[in-house]
Predict the structure.
Amino acid sequence: MAKPVAGKINFNTKHLKRGDPLPPYNGKLRIYSMRLCPFAQRTILALNAKNIDFEVVNISLADKPEWLTSKSPFGTVPSIEIKEDVCIYGSLIAVEYLDEVYPQRPLLPKDPVRKAMDKIIVEAVGPIITFVLKTVKAPDTITEETVSAFHKALEFIQEQLKERGSPYLAGDEPGYVDYMNWPWFERLLVFKEEDRKIDTERFKLLTAYLEKMKKDPAVVPYLVPDNVMNTFHEAFKTGPHPNYDLLDLQLK
């Protein structure tokens, strides 16, 4: 196994769409992604944390290139190409693969019980994912049950932080459980409506934890400014084709 050497990663490559050619494979680990996709972000965070060199090929999910299914049979992101035409897809599966193949900076614990518990916490964010997706794409479908399940999930994670007594759920530094959950919290933190925000009084410990996560070296280079995130979210309420290249436009 070649030792990875992290370089300057261009996260904001143009999102390729139908008719755009497949970039030639150059032998480097490649991730097929979408810059504002929280599922793809999970894999990017693992790559960053493990200091792996890679390249990004961003995909327009509203107008997918014809060749995408040759790299991700379900037509989804993320998919990592580990050698030409050999791809592993699905955010959690890709991250577990990376953690096995690249031993530096382990993200998953070795202890089977602790590993299982960490995966349970990742599963527990399901109601948070539902709440975020409904808030962005279908706010009228949010019910009392949606909100109640959302708050129970926040309480569960805060209780886990309290029980573990460490700065991060994984311990003294973030790990799999922290990085796999972070994309949903990043989006929650930009919501402006009072009934959509995390109650900072009720969730003091969780709020402090999220502020630490926001400063983590693997998280910082991939953070999206609040105004860009909000503009992207608003686009889902006005049409089916959001501007995936918003961040690239802002940086030019």
User: Anything to note?
Assistant: The first strand starts at residue 30 and ends at 33.
